[in-house]
Design a protein that fits this description.
The chain is mainly alpha-helical. The protein has helices spanning 32-36, 40-62, 65-68, 85-88, 100-128, 133-158, 191-211, 224-238, 241-254, 260-265, 288-292, 304-311, 355-368, 372-387, 401-416, 422-428, 459-464; strands at 3-8, 11-16, 25-26, 73-75, 276-280, 300-302, 322-323, 332-333, 350-354, 433-434, 445-446. Belongs to the SusD family.
């Protein structure tokens, strides 16, 4: 599928032809692109457009896929939206163009093209508008963060985890630092090369955020803390434990956990001082995630495996984010619907980074470094908040690294459920995917390693790009 870039009003939008490759970009009205980026108004309009495209790929497939392919979600496979059914049953094929296989690839690379256009014209804008150099530094930092995030998301979906090979030399994704010309056939980088570029972009973004005085007005825009959060997550996936501790600590030292009702509200209500670090706005957007998790006829809801974990804290805050009717075993998540609010008024934001995850990252990294007491303190902090107790009232009996890591894994499952983490947590820790005995999925167990832990490259891309190699296991 050839991506044709078209400018409508002041936001960059994409028109899709049905016959060529996703990475093959034909810039319709190419001569208008320099005009669009000729002044500050143009670049100021392009940045929100880029964020909107991030929301698109998060909403349709990226936020749903890791939970649908995980072990803690159950799907209604009859009478509901079943676009995720092949991922749930581990039956994904390269021909699945309108499901996550094709949509995440297409939408993420569209977002990447927008980001690269902003970065391409950034030097010209700096030269032309020196009085706006501070704002332009912040814009470049934001777009570098977005480019790193998109590459990181793509490599997690379409490649095996970083530690799949000892040197991460296995197939990654095409790394795009510019918008490809129509005749370009971009090959796949290795996973190591992909992560290298991700960290390069993040380090440059961090340097820019540290020198600019231009600050984002809300957490819908990337910030220094968002960059540090992504660096912490990337370090965790690479098992660079010391770096993970350092980056997570920097975030924790500057931003507090949400407590009590503020914690429950943050998923559906924007508050100035909640623990959210970076979120994608669902305002005025229809939402595939909202439809998937709606509380009337949902496609996805909590599996008994997750419910059992949450039931272990009967008075806990996190249990209040499940809706259950007496006599009905179905447990709906309330992270995307607020009780008492009309469905049409709900804003389905995607919470990409929040402080709770930083505590979990630091705990796992410290436990892996055998700093068990430090790891316990972070888990106690989260459990105290969840159970509405003091830290002193929380006891953790686990005394070995393996037992503490198992506890942390369960804590991640409880805290981050339905937020797009579960499959990636299983694969990066080389765990089997084992669903509950009463699962209705076609597959109950997938043993690590397995080729199905990465989605196939879409067939349309393979047809158009002779340099793209299909993931092992999906070859015709």
């Amino acid at each position: 599928m050839k991506i044709k870039i078209i400018y409508i009003s002041i936001i960059i939008v994409f028109a899709l032809n049905s016959c060529d490759g996703y990475l093959e970009v034909d810039e319709v009205g190419k001569s208008s692109i320099p005009v669009f980026f000729a002044d500050m108004d143009g670049v100021r309009a392009a940045v929100p457009g880029a964020y909107s495209l991030l929301y698109s790929y998060y909403d349709f497939g990226f936020m749903l896929y890791p939970d649908a392919a995980g072990d803690m979600l159950r799907m209604n496979v009859v009478g509901a939206d079943t676009k995720m059914i092949n991922e749930y049953n581990y039956n994904a094929t390269p021909e699945d163009e309108i499901t996550p296989v094709g949509r995440i690839w297409r939408d993420a690379y569209e977002a990447l093209a927008n980001v690269n256009n902003i970065l391409e014209y950034h030097p010209d804008l700096v030269n032309e508008f020196p009085q706006d150099v501070d704002e332009l530094a912040a814009i470049k930092a934001e777009t570098l963060f977005m480019r790193a995030l998109i590459h990181f998301d793509l490599v997690r979906v379409y490649a095996q985890p970083y530690n799949f090979t000892s040197d991460a030399s296995h197939l990654g994704i095409p790394v795009l630092l510019r918008t490809p010309a129509p005749d370009d056939n971009e090959p796949r980088s290795t996973v190591e090369e992909t992560y290298f570029q991700i960290e390069e972009d993040l380090q440059e973004a961090l340097e820019l955020f540290e020198i600019t005085t231009f600050e984002a007005q809300n957490n819908y825009r990337a910030s220094r803390l968002a960059v540090l959060s992504l660096l912490a997550r990337v370090s965790l996936y690479k098992e660079n434990w010391s770096d993970a501790v350092d980056y997570a600590t920097q975030v924790i030292n500057e931003k507090s956990l949400s407590q009590g009702q503020d914690y429950l509200d943050m998923f559906n209500t924007v508050r100035a001082n909640d623990e959210t670090i970076f979120r994608l706005s669902g305002k005025l957007k229809s939402s595939a995630v909202g439809q998937f998790y709606n509380t009337t006829n949902p496609t996805g809801f909590a599996d008994s495996k997750l419910v059992s974990l949450l039931d272990s804290e009967p008075e806990g805050l996190r249990l209040q984010l499940l809706k259950r009717e007496e006599g009905d075993p179905t447990a709906f998540t309330l992270k995307y619907y607020k009780p008492g609010v009309d469905v049409g008024d709900v804003q389905h934001d995607m919470l990409v980074f929040r402080v709770s995850e930083m505590y979990l990252i630091r705990a796992e990294a410290n436990a892996s470094l055998n700093n068990l007491e430090a790891a316990k303190e972070d888990i106690k902090t989260l459990q105290a908040r969840a159970q509405q107790k003091t830290v002193e009232e929380i006891d953790i009996l686990e005394s070995t690294t393996p037992s503490l890591l198992a506890l942390i894994a369960n804590e991640r499952a409880k805290e981050l459920c339905f937020e797009g983490h579960r499959l990636f947590d299983l694969t990066r820790t080389k765990q089997d995917m084992v669903r509950s005995s009463d699962t209705n999925a076609g597959v109950s167990t997938v043993t690590y390693p397995d080729y199905r832990f990465a989605l196939p490259i879409p067939q349309t891309e393979l047809n158009a790009n002779t340099n793209i190699i299909q993931n092992p296991g999906y070859e015709n």
